Amino acid sequence: MTILLTLAGAALILAALRDIFHELFHPSGSGSLSRALMRSLWHLARRVASRFPSLLHIAGPAIMVSIIASWAALLMVGWALVIWPHLPGGVLLATGLKPSGNNGFLDALYVSLTTLTTLGYGDITPRSGLLRVLIPLEALVGFGLLTASISWVLSIYPVLSRRRSLTQKLLFLSRTEAESGLSANRDPQLLATLTTEVIEVQQDLIQFPVTYYFHGEEHDALAVAMPYLMRLPKDLGPPEKLSADLRLHATTLQQAIEDLTSTLSDLFLGVSDDPETVAKAYIRDHLYAQKTDSTN
To answer: Is the pLDDT of residue 292 over 50?
Structure first.
C-alpha cells in the first residue's frame, strides 16, 4: 500500500512539475494539462457569455487563476499521498494531539497544505529520515510555485499592452483613411513597423498562449482589426508599379500576417491556415459582432 500511494503521489507531482515547466519556462510550449484546462474553461465561458456577455471579459484572468490553482492542487494531493503512509509514526505531534487521530488522509493533506504554502504551524513536525527530506523539499517547491506564478502574472501585462497597441494603431489608421482618403499602405516605414509589431504579437501568443483568452471590447480587439490589417499589403495595385522598397515591406508584412494566422489556427482555432478563414473564426471565437465595416 505504501508503494502504491507513493507512486501515485509521485506521478501527480511529476505531472504538475512537467506542466509548470512547459507553461512557464519553455519558450515555445504549453503544458498539456494547462492547454486542456484553458480550452475547456474557454468553451464554458463562451457558453455562459451567450447569456451574460460581460462575463467573457473575466475569462482570461479566471483561466490563469484556475491553472495556478490546478498546479497547487496536484502538488498538494501528490505530496499528501507520499506523506500519508508515514503518519503518525514518522512525525512528532504537538502536545495534546493523539497519534490515533492524526493518521488519516485529511491529516496528510493538512501537512501537505501547510508545507506547500510554507506556513508550517509546527503542530506536526517530521522526525523520520525520509520525511525530514521530503517536507522541506515540498516547501521549496511551494515557494518556487508562488514566485513563478507571480512572475507569470506580471509578464502577461506587457504582452496584452503590445497587442492593444497594435490594435489601436490599426483602428486609428483605418479611421484616418476613411476620413482623409489617404492610403496608409503607401508608407514603407509604416509597413515595416507593423511587420515588427505583428511578429511580436505572434511570438507572444506562442510563448504566452493564455493571453489569447483575454477578451476586450470591440474597439480594443485584434480580432476586429484583423480584416484591415490583412488588406494593407494587398491593396497596393500592380506590383510592377510599386517601388522596390514598398514591394519588399508589403511582402514582408504579408508573410508576418500569414505566420500570425497560422499560429492562431494551429494553437487555438483549428481551422484551415487561409488568413481570411482564420480571421472570421477569430471573430466568431471571441463572440464579436461580425460587423467589420469600419475596418474594411
So the answer is: no
